[in-house]
Amino acid sequence: MKRSTALLTMLACLPALLWLAVTGDALPEPPAEASAAAAELPAPPLPAAPADASQPVPATLSPQPPATSTTELCGSGRFALSAPQDDADANADAFARLPAPVGRLALQELQDRLLPLLAAGDARQRAAAWLLRQPADGAAQAAWAAGQLAEAHAGGDAQALRWAASACAHTDDASACRLALARARVNAEPDNGLHWLALAQEAPQPREQAQAWQGIVQASAWREYPAGLTATTQAALSHLRPAPAGYLRARLARDTLGPDAAQALDGADWLVSQCAHHRSDCAQVADRIAARADSAALLQLAATLGRQLDWPQERLDAVSAVTQAFHTTLPAWQDSPLACGAVDPQLAHVDAVAQRGEVPRTR
So which residues are the signal peptide here (predicted)? Predict the structure, then answer.
């Protein structure tokens, strides 16, 4: 029954469908209000494009490695510096950021070539080799100190004996060690007041201190040999073949200037105290130090004595001008020199100090 009813309904609609097909009339338009409402609806999202392996991945999805910079290495060309990875790297000097073959390993290779040359040289050069071989391991310090001291005493070079004082801290009796070195320095170079000053500092007995005072008064020379370790190593480097690159020579000079700067002017306070009781002799000593000092530290000691002796202000100003002139011409050593523009002035300064001292001798 239901099937018959549906069939009758379809037959009833058939004339209307045939009329639409013949006349071609379109279906009625929706009301204007409905069209406006539809226009205000947000557009549907476009389908995501399929991934294309040939296209680069956006930077936000793939972090890029830090950019590197390049620098000139004097005598070797340009090389890349590794980009800092953390705060420690950011604070490291440029040398530490060099690739190992032209940085750390190249410096080690240079030292390996230098040490046998120094060890086969004179007493001062052999002592320099011992200094450069100082171990970082505390357990090995005692054996190193014994070797350094034996070499210094056997060689008898006054400067090598002064360098050896740093080894005394690793002996059983540091005071006795320093006293023995001071006595050996006086025997090696008796005309140099610097050594008598060291003996006065270390001598435990008044009799030996009095002898040291007489040596100071009679001394005809006041030589500290400033930057002596640096001068010795740089002179040896000049004999290496092939010649080392300039930036490596300058880096080694920067490293050896540290031990050089650590050399204290022993006995300065003792000398000032003696001048309070021996003004006449002290005036003679101050004049000789001012005229013959080869270092800024000795010249400053002369100025200290001069103030105690009531030197005219003009003379004090002249001595101060000489020391200030030296300090203002110092090259910058804070960062590792790499480019020739930094290396050349630093090596020229090292050579000038080795030949003429830090301050002019005639004042």
Answer: 1-21
Please name the residue that has the structure tokens 């300058």.
Answer: 250
* pLDDT for the residue numbered 263: 77
Q: What is the pLDDT of residues 344-362, one digit of tens each?
A: 999 999 999 999 999 986 5
Joined together, the tokens standing for residue 128 give 């320099």
Other beta carbons less than 10 A from residue 291's beta carbon = 12
Render pLDDT for 163-217 as a digit per residue (tens, 0 to 9): 999 999 999 999 999 999 999 999 999 999 999 999 999 999 999 999 999 999 9
The pLDDT tens digits for 204-251 are 999 999 999 999 999 999 999 999 999 999 999 999 999 999 999 999
Please, what is the Cα angle at 334 between 328 and 338, to 5 degrees?
A: 105
End-to-end CA distance of the chain: 139
How does 326-357 read in b/e, with b if 16+ C-beta sit within 10 Å?
beeeeeebeebbbebebbebbbebbeebbeeb
- Rg of the chain over all Cα atoms, to the nearest angstrom: 42
Give the list of residues 6+ apart from residue 212 with CB closer than 8 angstroms, or none: 196, 197, 199, 200, 203
Question: What is each CA distance from 317 to 7, 46, 109, 306, 307, in whole angstroms?
Answer: 129, 85, 47, 11, 11
The residue behind tokens 């001012």 is 290
3-state secondary structure (DSSP) of residue 240: coil
Q: Which of 290, 143, 292 is nearest to 223 (CA)?
A: 292
Q: Which pair of structure tokens corresponds to residue 231?
A: 């001068």
233 close to 252: Cβ distance less than 8 angstroms: yes
Both tokens of residue 210?
A: 């009095």
Amino acid at 268: A
Q: Return the structure tokens found at 75.
A: 């005598």
Q: Note the pTM of the prediction, 2 decimals.
A: 0.76
Strands (E), the chain: 69-73, 77-81
In this structure, what is the dihedral angle of CA atoms 96, 98, 101, 104, given to the nearest 10 degrees?
-10
Q: What's the CA angle centered on 262, arms 112 and 111, to 5 degrees?
A: 5
Nearest partner of 246 among 263, 256, 234, judged by Cα: 234
Say if residues 272 and 304 touch (Cβ distance below 8 Å).
yes
In the numeric block, the tokens 């090259």 are attached to: 331
